[in-house]
Design goal:
404 residues; alpha/beta; Rossmann fold; formyl-coa transferase, domain 3; 2 domains; six-stranded parallel β-sheet; 14 helices; 9 strands
Length: 404
């Protein structure tokens, strides 16, 4: 394999916010030409809340989620821009959108319009609740999906604690969207036909996070309750305080043998023979007491030191790292996980967890400036005259935070 696997793929990205742009970011990371269509009068929320000094071009979240993409501005209120967008879509393999159903249809760019425009097109719609059904016209985002999928009922420390957000639903749905696109492209390669993928973000979140808990209720009649950091079978399992401010280590014991190893590593081999701790069932029954015993040891030690001590003893343990520690992590460095954009030396971007044999490492470019590639796309790709290339002034820019 020479180069990146998706280099021949062209994607028109009509999406905004986080979930669907994360889908197209994955495609761009693997070589697809992703053309981000931006609406200057209503910029993406990731471009921030300020227009002065070009701050909308320097938002870290924008730079990460929309890396490796091109930016072209389109005003759907202008006939020439609508024509340019149609020409662009005719040259595309994939179109991704996440607006509420009907929003793009009003301008002639709904899924049915695009299917007529290019029958072999792969169209991914990622609205909050799908394109059909009684909730289809509602807007939504990650926090809503966490609640409505049921997963938030399990994200407390115990049955008496307040549920907490997990905040990863958008990236999860982006991965689901990328997988759906790749599946549809395989179908197109085999049949020559495109597809419209109707991906409900609520349903994707429910499927990915709550499936086994629903089956537990349907098959066994048992309602799953929040366990916090504990496990229904392994014991002990938890997140234990270490020395220093807000430093922790996660530990899990999966067998009686691992319990003996943990006891020995903590200098307490007698715990292995204690009748309160001789089986997983007994250890679960006395979990609170075990937690206090473990934390008496961890609280006097550095979290990384404790991790290595326990791992060397054959116990599953991992230091809880903050963002600064992750950015300096030796393991990730030796794996060459981080990448440094040529256009932004000294800036570290997250890499890709999946490496394909024979492909070159991706070169990361930060998220584009607003309309940065208007000339390249409109003139170079579409052959439009220079007088159709928009000049964007301060008065042309509206933010997602502006009142309607």
């Amino acid at each position: 394999m020479n180069g990146l696997p998706l280099e021949s793929l062209r994607v028109v990205d009509l999406s905004h916010a986080w979930a669907a742009p994360h889908c197209t970011r994955l495609l761009a990371d693997y070589g697809a030409e992703v053309i981000k269509v931006e609406y200057p009068r209503r910029l993406c929320i990731l471009r921030g809340a300020r227009r002065d000094e070009g701050l909308y071009d320097r938002q870290p979240a924008w730079g990460q989620v929309n890396r490796n993409k091109l930016s072209v501005t389109i005003d759907l209120g202008r006939p020439a821009d609508r024509d340019a967008l149609r020409d662009l879509i005719r040259l595309a393999d994939v179109v991704v959108m996440n607006s509420r159903p009907g929003s793009l249809d009003r301008h002639g760019f709904g899924p049915a319009d695009l299917e007529r425009l290019k029958p072999d097109l792969v169209i991914l719609s990622m609205p909050a609740f799908g394109t059909t059904g009684p909730w289809s016209s509602f807007a939504g985002y990650g926090a809503i999906f966490e609640a409505m999928s049921g997963i938030q009922s399990l994200t407390a420390y115990d049955t008496e604690s307040k549920p907490a957000r997990i905040k990863e639903i958008d990236t999860l749905n982006g991965v689901v969207g990328a997988c759906a696109v790749m599946t549809a492209l395989v179908h197109r390669a085999e049949t020559g036909r495109g597809q419209h993928i109707d991906l409900s973000q609520l349903e994707a979140a429910t499927h990915a996070t709550a499936g086994e808990h629903m089956l537990e209720m349907v098959m066994n009649g048992r309602h799953t309750l929040p366990l916090g950091n504990r496990h229904p079978h392994f014991a002990p399992q938890g997140c234990y305080r270490c020395a220093g401010e807000d430093r922790w280590i996660a530990i899990t014991v999966r067998s009686d043998e691992e319990w003996r190893r943990l006891a020995a590593a903590l200098g307490q081999p007698g715990w292995a023979a204690d009748p309160r701790f001789t089986s997983a069932a007994e250890r679960r029954r006395h979990h609170d007491e075990i937690d206090r015993l473990i934390e008496a040891w961890t609280s006097t030690r550095d979290h990384r030191e404790a991790m290595h001590t326990l791992q060397d003893a054959g116990v599953a343990a991992g230091a809880v790292l903050d963002l600064e520690e992750i950015a300096r992590d030796r393991h990730l460095d030796e794996r060459r996980y981080f990448t440094e954009p040529q256009a932004a030396p000294g800036t570290r971007y997250m890499g890709m967890p999946i490496r394909l044999a024979g492909s070159v490492p991706p070169v990361v470019t930060p998220g584009p400036r607003l309309g940065e590639h208007n000339t390249r796309v409109r003139s170079g790709l579409l052959g439009r005259p220079d007088n159709e290339i928009p000049v964007i002034g301060p008065d042309d820019i509206g933010l997602a935070y502006d009142p309607e």
